[in-house]
Design brief:
- By secondary structure, this protein is α+β, with helices and mostly antiparallel strands.
- The protein is built from three helices and eight strands.
- It has a five-stranded mixed beta sheet with strand order 1-2-3-8-4, with helices on one face. It has a three-stranded antiparallel beta sheet with strand order 6-5-7, with helices on one face.
- The longest helix is centred in the N-terminal third of the chain and has 16 residues, at about 40-55.
- The two termini are about 30 Å apart.
């Protein structure tokens, strides 16, 4: 807006594809500048769903609201996403003032060796968080409306 970026949405493949419908994607990240007016998030979601309906053959959008960081899914509810379930409580590692995913304890990266060592000696802590809330939006198309084929959707065709 007026030459300035106020937000963005990242959409990606479902992480556990075998558990979800074939033409489903996950809304992984949504960020908005704090200057945005009230209801911008639900407006942005509505425009994103509209774009997906017009330009892809994606049929379902899933997203999570992380209760550990205070997200309750208010904008998803306002955008007619359906609550599916709460996940089991999350686990994360607190280390040097930052929050890490527990897979950081198992991967082979230079920092992960120090992280594992600091968990053992008490300088890092593995803590239980709150659940994440899973929401879904089923994209409906009007009778006779034909979604684009995967070759028509360009970069998003890799998700289908």
């Amino acid at each position: 807006y007026q030459g300035r970026v106020y937000g963005g949405i990242v959409i990606g493949k479902m992480r556990h594809k075998d558990k979800y419908e074939k033409k489903a994607v996950e809304l992984r990240r949504m960020v908005l500048h704090p200057d945005c007016p009230k209801n911008t998030a639900s407006y942005f979601l509505a425009k994103t769903i509209w774009w997906l309906r017009k330009n892809t053959n994606i049929s379902i959008v899933y997203t999570f609201a992380d209760q550990t960081v205070g997200h309750t899914g208010t904008c998803y509810k306002a955008s007619n996403f359906e609550f599916v379930k709460d996940t089991p409580p999350t686990t994360h590692v607190l280390w040097k003032g930052k929050r890490y995913h527990p897979r950081s304890l198992n991967i082979e990266r230079p920092y992960s060796y120090r992280l594992r060592e600091d968990v053992k000696n008490g300088k890092a802590e593995v803590v239980k968080g709150k659940p994440k809330s899973l929401f879904k939006y089923v994209i409906t198309r009007k009778e006779g409306e034909i979604p684009p084929t995967s070759k028509d959707v360009g970069i998003l065709s890799q998700f289908l």
